[in-house]
Design goal:
It is a single chain. This protein is an alpha/beta fold and 172 residues long. It has a single domain, classed as Rossmann fold. 44% of the residues lie in helices and 13% in strands. Strands 2-1-3-4-5 form a 5-stranded parallel sheet. Helix 1 crosses helix 4. Mean pLDDT is 78; it is low at 1-9 and 18-28.
């Protein structure tokens, strides 16, 4: 029991430290977007990050700045526990800082599952979740989840995203 509680406290401490490193409270200034997707598609996600930034939005996904060889790994197995815990805490801090999480669904069936976890956390944090492509989970039918068949529709929605959309679950 004590070990479990100690681990939980350690994780929370790391998460708070990651949030502080990430730069503050969500919703301040321009809209913030977290990109979630299959890690092995990082090059495409980096390109999408550039197009979102060009539309005047901030992308909070620091995981995209990791070295290519780290992102290309087939799994996270074998990572030292501290590295995995810190990476997860950083990712969730970035999700918390965002106003909307964009889930790029293509390839997720082959992925590690982290993007689905991040989308669930974003929803629980009161963020808008936008799904680009086909995601078959029933959870993507919940209020506050927007679906887009193509990137052009997603980018148009993000560029015109009204202030009213920036509340818990998109005001839904």
């Amino acid at each position: 029991m004590v070990a479990c509680g100690q681990h939980r406290m350690d994780w929370r401490t790391r998460a708070l430290a990651a949030e502080a490193r990430a730069g503050g409270a969500p919703g301040a200034g321009r809209a913030r977007v977290y990109l979630a997707g299959w890690t092995r598609r990082f090059r495409e996600l980096r390109d999408l990050r550039g197009r979102i930034a060009a539309a005047g939005l901030e992308v909070t996904s620091r995981w995209l700045d990791q070295p290519d060889e780290r992102l290309a790994r087939p799994s996270d197995e074998g990572l030292p526990p501290g590295v995995a815990t810190e990476a997860a805490a950083d990712d969730l801090a970035d999700v918390r800082r965002a106003d909307v999480l964009v889930l790029v669904a293509e390839g997720l069936a082959e992925g590690r599952g982290g993007a689905h976890f991040e989308a669930g956390c974003a929803h629980a944090f009161g963020k808008v979740v936008a799904v680009l492509g086909h995601a078959s989970s029933i959870f993507y039918a919940l209020p506050g989840v927007r679906r887009f068949d193509n990137e052009a529709g997603l980018l148009a929605w993000l560029a015109a995203w009204p202030e009213a959309e920036r509340g818990p679950h998109g005001g839904a």
